Structure formats: C-alpha cells, structure tokens
Automatic annotation (TrEMBL):
Stated family: Belongs to the Tdpoz family.
Record pathway: Protein modification; protein ubiquitination
Bias kind Basic and acidic residues: ranges: 17-41
PROSITE patterns: BTB, MATH
Gene that encodes the chain: ga27650
Protein name, entry field: Speckle-type POZ protein
CDD domains for the chain: MATH
BTB domain: residues covered: 267-331
Amino acid sequence: MPEQGAVWAGWRGGSDGCREGEGRRRPWVRKEGMRGEKGEEGGNGWEEENAGGVSTMGNTMAAPKLEQPKPRMASRCATQTARGTLSFEITGYRLHKGLGVGRFIRSASLNVGGFSWCLNYYPDGDRRKESEGFIGIYLELLSSDVEARAAFHIRLVNPQETNANKLASATILHMDTSTVFSTVDASRNSSWGIGQSEILKTSELEKTPYLHNDSLLFECDITVFKEPRVVKKTVKDTIIVKKSPHPQPLRNLTYDLAQLLETKDGADVFFDVQGQVFPAHTVVLAMRSPVFRAQFHGPMRPQGHGGQQHVTIEDMQPQVFKALLCYIYTDSTQHCMKRLTRDEKKEFTLHLLVAADRYDVENLKFDCETFLCKSLVVGNVVTMLVFAEQHNCSVLKDACIEFVNCPDNRTTVFKSEWYSRLNESSPDVLDVLLSLTQKRRVRSGRSSN
C-alpha cells in the first residue's frame, strides 16, 4: 500500500580519538616506561598499539588522528493506510420519509484498517433544528472502546451513469485530512457527516437523476491511518523492520471448497438433472441443507448404500441446480450468473429461490428475496406477491405489500394488466392478498396516529 507523509531523520556520530581521564578530556595516548619496553618498571603492560602512536624516552605524544569508519543510522517514519469503499442503496425512498427527525437507517458494516464502519441515513434530518427539510448521511465508527484516524469522501451516485453523462456522482462531504473518530471519549465524535447541504435538500434532491426508481445510492471512500512504522537502515543499507505478519495466503476455506466442487475429488453422490450429472459430497450438502442432511444421514437415507449414490432431481433446470450447488459450497452464485442480463437474472433468481426453499438453504433464499425486492415495479408486484405467498417468502411479501400500499403506486397497480389477469384466473388468491394489504394499511394508519 502506498506510504504517505514520509518524514526522514538521520544521525551521524563517531569516535574522535579521545578518552575521559582525571576529570577532563584529553588525547588518548599510550604511556611507556623510561626504556619503552613492556613489563619493565614504568610500563603498564598494554599489548595494543594506537594507530600511528609514537613514543619518546620519558615523554608522550598524541597519536595522530586518522579517518575512522563512522557508524551511520538513518530511520524513516512512514504513515500506513488502509482503504475501503462502503456502498449503501436506499430503496423505497418515499416509504422511508416520515420515519422521524433524528431517526436513521444503518447500512451493513465494513471492516477497514481493523475497524468496523457503517453509514447512517436520516430520511427526515438529524437532530439539529436547521436540518429540517434535508436528508442526512453520516459515517460512523462501530468498534467499541477505540479511537481511529480516518479521511473519507461521501458521494451520491447516479445509477444511470454513462460516458456522456456529466452527473455521474455528486460529492456530499469530503474530509481529506485526518479526522478522529472515538468510541472511548464521549467528548469526541464517533460519527461525522452532513445534514444540511443544497444537494441534500429534499425538494431539490427529488428533481435530480440521483433519485432513480425511488432509490438513492450513497458511496463512501474510507482511508484509515494506521500507527506509523519505523524502518532502520545500517551502514550497509540493510533494512531492519519491525516484525510484521507474512502476507496472508490466498487460499481459504471458500477457495478450497470451490476447488473440491470443481475437481470432484472424493465425490460420493451423483445428481442427474435432465440428463446432466453433477457430482457432490454428502458431508458438505448435509452441513448446508437440513433436507440433504435428512436425505443422506437421517431416516430418509437409502439402506445398504455405503459407497456412491445416484439421485435423480425432478422439476428443476440443470443450471439452477448448478447454481444451488455453487452457493452451498461457496456462499455465492456470482460465477453462475455473471453473463446474464438484469431481466435474465430476475427470472433465474425466481427459479433459484424455489430451489432454495425446496432444500431449505435459508441464506440463499434470503439473498434471492433481497434481490427481487429491488426489482419491484408496478407491472410485476402482483405476481411477485402471489409468488411470495406460495413459497412463504416473508421478506419479499412484506416488500410487495409496502409497495402496493404506497399512495403513489396503489391506484396504478389496481389498473395494471397483471392485476386484471390475476382477478380472472385466481380471484380467491387475489382476495387473500388484498386482505393482507388492507390489514397492513390499517395497522400503518393506527401506528401513525
């Protein structure tokens, strides 16, 4: 990582050919006896000779000063930094309005420089009176009983960014100098941000392209300043540094499990999905899915099968099952979906959510629901609500109900083509869903009163 703010300091010193004697400094000399021979009366038995030393009978002379090697030591104090970027997307911007002054929504946390950080979004302004009519955004240090020095840059991002678009992002607050965040000293701030800026005025913000599809996207670049590191140099310019840990190996558990899935080493179960065979490991499947655990290690397991097993999967596409396995092994489906368009991802995620529900992979189900919540529009919210009800997707169902209950959306949804189709094909289902939204509206009205 690049080092900033380097400060150089040096010290030189050396012997000047003098020693201390009898309360004052005098030249370092060698004394000899009258005869100048070692061991005789008047001699002190020194065996060494000062370089160039000369002696005369009964007198002493100072040794001439020669150039001596001078030890040298230089040190370099350099500031180390750690950097990271925290993104926070606010979906349902208008739904969050009315949360209350001083109340905020907290982003997920990010570890930068050994400290945990988050962004706090105030839909109705922070606690200051002058923030009324503005939104607020603050960077907060979450780690307990610590102090951290950091610089940061908060900006609004235009999701429709193009090469020709000059409104790619707007800087909200830029602190390029070291700022102290503290959770130790109450007199110091644990969060820094802004709650009053022209770009954050709600009446102005809602006219800009930064509010797109009722969503805002904030990004915050964080630079944490670590403790200075001192490097020493000897005469031979060999560098002695304080002990630091070796670079962490690139391999980790996720990497090893991904390799295990790819190489198929030790596979003991083979899944046949529409003619495509997927090898896997029952111990990994059982660890991640209660359904697989019961199938391979519980009462449901086939009797007398000590070796490899073959299982046929019905009613599932091969690519969906492959993505399910990929998530079970690596906690990610990015590799399986990276070439899909956004609409294709939406359709694929619906199938993947069904698979996650079928095998009770809760984290995958939650991730799929979260992605689908971000894709809600008037044209699909009714079918999404039916889908969520069928597969017990509470996160997605709540998002759909909130979307329908929004005054700006409700009338448009009821006039949509999808609503008409559902009314014709499944009126009973529609009645149940309408009762859910009606209950939510009544409950919301009571809480606001």
